[in-house]
Amino acid sequence: MKTLNDTPGSNTPLTGIEKHEAEVPVGLEQRLSALIDKLEAEEAATRQGQQKSSTRRSLWITGMAIAAVFAAAAFILLSPRKTGRAIEVDDPEEARVQTERALTALTTTFAKGVEGMEKAKHTTAHIIGALNN
Asked: Is the pTM higher than 0.85?
């Protein structure tokens, strides 16, 4: 005889009146099975769509990075260059002035390069942020 545990440690025998079997609606098992299959298929499709989206985003970012590298290379190769000339100076004061000019030009060029890199970094961060949203 089966027993029912009302309280821990006590076993009460089940009588015929207490036994109750739940009635399962006709076709419920098939409907639940179909619903589970449908949900699994939707989840699989969602995962596949996310993978495709992630792949497209990665390809787009890679393409933008390659384009940026080519643009920088083209800018460097196609920009006009000033031909430098050697200056011979006998006067120490004139040598100091020429050195200051050269260092000022170098500093200015370096600052422009850093400014361009910061601008590119900001633009790239903005594009990546837009892609992630």
From this structure: no
